Amino acid sequence: MDATTLRLAETVARMDLATLSDETVTQAKRRIVDAIACAMGAFEEPFCETIRGVSARYSGTSTARIWGTDLVSSVEMAGFANGTVMRYLDLNDTFLGASAGHPSDMIPALIALAEATGASGAALIGAIVAAYELYCGLCDATALGPQGLDQSTGAALGAAGGASRLLGLDVPATGNAIALAVGANLNLYNVRCGTLSDWKACAGPNGARNGVFAALLAREGVTGPTAVFDGKGGLSTVLQPLAFRDDPTAPPRLLETRLKAYPVCYHGQSAVDAAIELAAKIDPAQVARVLVETYEASAKMMGGDPTRWAPETRETADHSLPFTVGVALTTGRLTSGDYAAARLVDPELRAFMAKIEVRECAEMSDTYPARNHTRITVMLADGQGLSAERLQPKGHPDNPLSQEELGEKLANLWPGAVLPGARVAQVIGLVDGLDRAASVAPLVDALCPRG
């Protein structure tokens, strides 16, 4: 086992609930509520129904439930199904470092494994914190996208670590799980380039599924590559530089992650918030030009490609500043319903989007990722100009969603036609007591009709 693999395996071993601060435990619970909210909000989407149908064809001796249904699948496929549904709305959490990513992509896979193995709520929380530590550690160790790799590579790594904690693996076995996951899951950045496909929602959860599988193999004694990071042909030869943080006293990375207020790529959160403020002050018919000034990562991801002015898929639209800002300025809101197929080709919206310019601001780039600074200036036909800007969007650690707002997010996304509305308060209560729960089964019960 090489030095990096050993260090990461030892990091996983340290993430016991007894060693975590109250704030870390609280924030882990908030990520669980947020992930469940996102999954419930996408439940009725046709694509999500397809994924559930595929997953329900699989079974095994170790099974877990598919949320919102009475279906059971293998632990890996249940985690994949629940994770893909959770990711679909692009409303789950974000980490921003040298690379960006969505670490809660791993939470459904870890809940499925905890359910299948009868693990305690405390064990699940420790596993989630460990998974975040590895996922976010990779995202901050190197710039993945410019080197051709996708953030979902981190989901395989992180889930392998989290699953190893749930399975009670020792450090050598955890190292093998990590090596098995990393050696087989270098996913391509093309997932998030150009016209985005259905796979955008699947990539992270698929990485998490593979990370769980790697840990299950390691539990049976299967060994992984012995120098998957530092050796010949290892990850450090693919990604340069590759520098994981080596400070056992540093606060857990989970505390650096950010929740979302709007169903849009995180780089668009500040822009949408500012646009909604401006919408109350303008008549869209009188708008002559719109300038969106933002930091480099936002400008490149959401305004650096012609597809962002003519999105053909939901996945491209929620990564488009012209589309999301256009919707917010003309309607005063941005909801999942705004990504309907007819809305993507709405001629009035397309005409408005043509007035929008996206420009990188060097000063804003200099403050990223600590800030997500964006300014929108609207020029009206009479020559008047109006501006609004945000340094941090709602959900950033410096501008957090309150507990009440997080509860409202769950309530607003809850599929009342599928599950009783009373379950919302039940879920919040169950997650709040998770660190004292002998099992995660009651929580999953609340997410399934027969519960």
Note down, in words, how this protein is organized:
The chain has 20 helices and eight strands. A hairpin with a 6-residue loop joins strand 1 and strand 2. The chain starts with a helix and ends in a 5-residue tail after the last helix.
Give me a quick take on this structure:
The protein contains 20 helices and 8 strands. It is an alpha+beta fold and 451 residues long.
User: Mind summarizing the main beta sheet?
Assistant: 4 strands, mixed
| CATH C-level of the largest domain | Mainly Alpha
CATH superfamily of the largest domain: 2-methylcitrate dehydratase PrpD
Reading side by side through the largest sheet, how are the strands ordered? Answer: 6-5-7-8
Mean pLDDT: 97
Distance between the termini: 44 Å
Shape: globular
Strand fraction equals 5-15%
Alpha plus pi helix count: 20
SSE ordering: HHHEEHEEHHHHHHHEHHHHHEHEEHHH
CATH architecture of the largest domain: Orthogonal Bundle
Helix/strand/pairing category: alpha+beta
Tell me the number of strands: 8
Low-confidence stretches: none
What number of structural domains do the residues give? 2
Rg is 21 Å
The CATH topology name of the largest domain reads 2-methylcitrate dehydratase PrpD
Q: What portion of residues is helical? A: 40-55%
